[in-house]
Amino acid sequence: MTTARTGLLAAIATLQRHCPYMVIITNHLDSTPYSGLTQDTQGMQGGGDEALKGMYEVLFDYLPEDARLLKVEAGQRITVVGRREDWLLAIDTKGHMGFVPPTYVRKEVEEDDDGY
User: Fold this and answer.
1) Residue 6 host element (H or E)
2) pLDDT single digits (tens) 19-46
3) Residues facing 79 on adjacent strands
4) Could you tell me the fold of the domain covering 3-107?
């Protein structure tokens, strides 16, 4: 199994834990846009970034020209599954995956089980 595919499958598993109601089609994992992530996922940092992962609100529109970057719009919700250097790896509600700048998003506050 390739590094990109392994990384993608791990990202999908994380997304499904955060959004169990979301259906992700995985029969085209080796086609674009994910095939271009091979180099980027090799440098992914994960272990100590558990607090970083979760649901985020997009604060500003981000319209990248690079296919490895994720197009997002203000008000949109995304799931951050990791980071690489100064970028966050995220998946949107349509299942698109890519990198976003951390200054364009804000982590949503998680409520405790008590509702606080």
Assistant:
1) helix 3-18
2) 655 555 444 444 334 333 433 444 555 5
3) 55, 91
4) SH3 type barrels. (2.30.30)
**How many Å from the N-terminal Cα to the C-terminal Cα in the chain?**
43
Domain boundaries, the chain: 3-107
Q: What angle do CA 34, 52, 59 make, to 5 degrees?
A: 80
| Burial class (CB within 10 angstroms; exposed 0-12, middle 13-18, buried 19+) of 13 | exposed
Measured CA distances, 66 to 33, 36, 78, 109, 116 (Å): 10, 10, 18, 30, 40
pTM (2 decimals)? 0.58
Closest CA to 98 of 56, 69, 71, 78: 69
DSSP secondary structure string for all residues of 41-73: HHT-B-GGGTTT-EEEEE-S-B--SSTTBPPB-
CA-to-CA distance for 111 and 106, rounded, in angstroms? Answer: 15
Q: Is the peptide bond before 101 cis (omega within 30 degrees of 0)?
A: no
> Phi, psi at residue 26, to the nearest 5°?
-115, 15
